[in-house]
Amino acid sequence: MAKKILIVDDDRDYVEATKTLLESKGYSTVFAYNGEEGFEKAKTEKPDLILLDVMMTNKTEGFDISRSIKEEESIKNTPVFVITGIRKDMKLPFKFEPDEDFLPVKKVMEKPIKPNDLLKAIEEVIG
Question: What are phi and psi of 101, to 5 degrees?
Answer without folding.
Answer: -95, -50
